[in-house]
């Protein structure tokens, strides 16, 4: 295995503090004098898990000649990243890398994924109490991807698989990807699905202009489209054990899934073969999971009403600055029981990742 500790980078972000009727967040002094926020529920310290934490491997980016941006914290010195986690009240970060390699051939894809997954495994081994990671895979080459899953999980000790919401214009529901979903189903792996944004035609027309709409709207729309295809084209039915974490609260799907139920009755001749369940049922059953990145306690409460508390996992989207106060969001969301907060803040993630 190569020496990859210097090859992963992160960026810093801020934090604030909160408490709820059945939980509290307090500061604890580390041996070096720095402060670590510790989260307790009903007086018991819990382990918090950030399911949505990005990183980059410069050596892998270099294979394609890409610049190494957003690498303020290199993994030769993890102190700054861990200090940020301490300030946020995050005990464990589940690291993932947004796919940028879906266009490359087999040889390049094999090299990129090898570098990335070995680097991720090294940093997780060096800080096993603070980091776990999702294995990257070359999804555009399904046979290779299956091999990378086997090696990443069984040999390197990674905890799940991360993917994009489409592959160079091909939907995840395309049956050529079924061997990958079958392998994830067989191994009981959580699949972390992150958007890359909608296609260039829409991005260059309706999503151009002010407001970074390619990201603000395009990313959650990308997730919504992917989930809809996975349901309506039978992927989730063909692989009943497949578990997918759809980030950014699942995009717009959970907020408007009842329209997807209604289309089955409204246009029955244009929906088929029918999914085994109504689309809203997939929100509540055991295959789809979501992170907390919806920004507002009432929005999180609504997401939970459409799904279940044990379907939601805390995520920060580090280091992109969208949010750094997810512990506070969960603690301040009304109507949650102590068990609900435990599940969202880390319990569900720990179960799915085998922590």
Oligomeric state of the chains in view: single chain
Q: Report the CATH superfamily.
A: Metal-dependent hydrolases
Helix content: 40-55%
**Second rung of CATH, namely the architecture:** Alpha-Beta Barrel
Order of helices and strands: EEEEEHEHEHEHEEEHEHHHHEHHHEHEHH
Query: What is the strand arrangement across the widest sheet?
Result: 5-7-8-9-12-13-14-15
Structure in words:
The protein has one domain (5-353): Metal-dependent hydrolases (TIM Barrel), CATH 3.20.20. Helices cover 41% and strands 17% of the residues. It contains 15 helices and 15 strands. The strands form four sheets. The protein has an eight-stranded parallel beta sheet, sandwiched between helices. Strands 2-3-4 form a three-stranded antiparallel beta sheet, covered by helices on one side. A two-stranded antiparallel sheet has the order 1-6. Mean pLDDT is 88; it is low at 1-6 and 8-18.
List keywords for this structure.
alpha/beta, TIM Barrel, three-stranded antiparallel β-sheet, globular, disordered N terminus
